[in-house]
Amino acid sequence: MSEKVHCLIIGSGPAGYTAAIYAARANMKPVLYQGIQPGGQLTITTEVENYPGYPQGIQGPEMMIDFEKQAKRMGTDIRYGLATKVDFSGPVHKVQIDENEWIEADTVIISTGASAKWLNLESEQRLNGYGVSACAVCDGFFFKGKEVAIVGAGDTACEEAVYLSKLATTVHMIVRKDEENMRASKVMQERVKNTANIKIYWNVETDEVLGEKKVEAVRIKNIKSGEKREIPVSAFFVAIGHKPNSDIFADWLKLDDAGYILTAPGTSKTNIDGVFAAGDVQDKIYRQAVTAAGSGCMAALDAERYLTEKGIA
Length: 313
Description:
This protein is an alpha/beta fold. Helices cover 24% and strands 27% of the residues.
């Protein structure tokens, strides 16, 4: 058995809910499946101070509840469920939910997001939101004038270290490899090395994040000598990459080398007509709630125009 809809939205972060608001207002009768993490990454974020319209700031989970309420008020059919398989072979797109029922859709908006890669330390997960973060741009401001640590060795880690250096007194950068084998481009390496308040620790790994209710220090271990030492810090930023949640689309959509869905410049259009992508699943540069919401708006408008051109709605 299958159900037919005009607009199917997969994912429920800022991109998915914004797409739903616009699609519902355009009378596209959107159906949105929330996915494995309703509300997306913001549900594991504490204070959000950089989203317009919340002058006093807001807790991430609370903001996502507001998004959901607005999408629902506009008429979006919001459902629990996870997209587990797709078939984009025909003019009507098919998406399987929970390995069970199939939904047929004239348009599909993919907003499945990306998941931060973690070190898989117990303390890292326990203190997530209490000094541990995977987004320096989101949370660095809260640690202005304090010492912080960042782990990572790629361009993103370097960019975030430089960003943090403008806020923190000292940025302790934890790098597993030696100086000759650092992953970041030479330009980014030089930028980090030339920033006076960034201190780089080569050939070390994070042994543990220390603190009961908030981050108080990080313990590092030299991978050659085994020597351990503790560095007092107020925050611990993980910058070892993100993984876009795009695996089920790999057989149908064009992805870049990291798995991000490729869209036509300036649009949300994928290589399949009627299939659109928004938010962090196609954005590896900005990864902000406000940019995700903006791309969700784009996806709904692109989907509406597609339906109009096809004479479907």
